[in-house]
Amino acid sequence: MSDPINDSAVSETLDELTARHKKELKAFEGEKRGAIKNAKSRGKKGKGAVKEAEFKYEGLERDLKERHRLELQQLKSGGSEGESKTDNGDDKIKEEEPNNNNATPSTQSEQQQP
Question: Where in the sequence does UniProt note compositional bias of the Basic and acidic residues kind (predicted)?
Answer without folding.
Answer: 82-97
